[in-house]
Amino acid sequence: MVAALGLGTLGTDLFGSSAANIPDVDTPVTLLTEYGGPPVLTHDAAPGIAYERPRVQVLVRAKDYRLARQRIEGLVQGLARVVNQTVLGARYQRLELVSGPVDVGLDGKGRAQVTANLQAYKGVSP
């Protein structure tokens, strides 16, 4: 979704999952890791699941804290603009910030790391 919205380039500065092979560079890189959210939502007018509510942790790493912070704030603002849109075949009612951005310290090479957590309200995936 982030790449589809023009907020990064998959495999260059944008990576998904904890198993991603992130290059050892000082330029800003973003890692997206999906995790479980609260229970699904149902609707009285129709049986079944109305919305899934997965969460995603966004981690930005950069040589400089200011760059990491700017990048993650841009990502959060861009994702918050997703309202009633279909992205890559999935219908998103909205995405909302759950926590962050938060400075989580330096990595093993002294690069700044900043995270934010978002929750999606999305239609059930086929």
Tell me about this structure.
It is a single chain. This protein has a single domain, classed as 2-Layer Sandwich (STM4215-like), CATH 3.30.2000.20. 13% of the residues lie in helices and 48% in strands. It is built from one helix and eight strands. A hairpin with a 2-residue loop joins strand 6 and strand 7. The protein is elongated. The chain starts with 13 loop residues before the first strand and ends with a strand.
Give a quick summary of the entry:
With 126 residues, the chain is mainly β. The chain has one helix at 65-80; strands at 14-16, 29-35, 41-43, 46-51, 55-62, 83-87, 90-106, 112-122. It has a single domain, classed as 2-Layer Sandwich (STM4215-like).
Number of domain units: 1
**Largest beta sheet: strand ordering:** 1-2-5-8-7-6
CATH topology: STM4215-like
**Rg from Cα:** 16 Å
Beta fraction: over 45%
Mean pLDDT: 86
User: Which sequence of SSEs, written as H and E, runs from N to C?
Assistant: EEEEEHEEE
What structural class do the secondary elements suggest?
mainly beta
CATH architecture classification: 2-Layer Sandwich
Which regions contain 5 or more consecutive residues with pLDDT less than 50? none
Which CATH C-level class is it? Alpha Beta
How many helix segments? Answer: 1
Instruction: Tell me roughly what share of residues is in helical segments.
Output: 10-25%
| Strand element count | 8
First CA to last CA: what distance?
A: 17 Å
**Shape estimate:** elongated
Could you describe the largest sheet, including whether it forms a barrel? 6 strands, mixed
